[in-house]
Amino acid sequence: MPELPDVEVFRRRLVEATTDRRIEGVDVLDGEVLATTRAELDRALAGSRVSGTRRHGKQLYVGLGDGPPLRLHFGMTGYLTTVADHDEPPRHTRVVLALSRGRRLLLVDQRKLGEVGLVDSADDDVAQRGLGPDALDLDLAGLREVLARSRGALKPTLMDQGRIAGLGNIYSDEVLFQARLDPRAPAAEVSRGEAQRLHRQLRRVLERAVEGGVRDFPRGWLLHRRDDGARCPRCGGPVERFTAAGRHGFRCPACQSREG
């Protein structure tokens, strides 16, 4: 599932594709991903230019001048890519934006769980969805407040979009691994020093993932070893699969023990 770093990469890809280009038309190949009508989408997009973008957690908002902003959510398998006019679009392409000067911006989504819609404003939509602060906007005091108010374990607390927007299964595991914190530990029992470590690694992991285009990950990340019995990249011990509040994840019992 695309998480904050993925959606930030998609945002930058969209900005690059649409800079100095006009949206000439929209072709909906599969209406199942629409959260609006084809006619409304065409009226909002055809002839417009992108006037700004905003990412909040896993949501991407695209300003269209005086018109309603476009909202993109990528579900489990969605992503944005660009092709030239004469190129064949990838399989599972659902929506095509025809751009001036011979380019097309594509929403590809195999499982069709993403959404393309129009909203009154990004701020209103974020509020209506009950989203917490974006993970990269969260300061240490905000994180400590989130943890103190939680009655659950660390991993599901970090993944709760109403508390912190943007983290999913993979990056919550990575952040907790880098912070050397047990994902099953009660969030409210995290010490001041642990919260500082968690906040530092939260920013570091997300920013590094974006910088690498969510492809080039450091060798010392758990992400490469997400398999029961794999070897921990830090200590060489076995990686363990666990469940916390119905959320599955991976941890190193030696590096992320509650006592350690």
From TrEMBL:
Reactions performed catalytically: Hydrolysis of DNA containing ring-opened 7-methylguanine residues, releasing 2,6-diamino-4-hydroxy-5-(N-methyl)formamidopyrimidine
Domain spans labelled FPG-type: 222-257
Annotated Formamidopyrimidine-DNA glycosylase catalytic domain residues: 2-114
Pfam families reported for this sequence: Fapy_DNA_glyco (PF01149), H2TH (PF06831), zf-FPG_IleRS (PF06827)
UniProt cofactor(s): Zn(2+)
PANTHER family noted in UniProt: FORMAMIDOPYRIMIDINE-DNA GLYCOSYLASE
Protein's UniProt name: DNA-formamidopyrimidine glycosylase family protein
Naturally occurring in which organism (per UniProt): Nocardioides cremeus
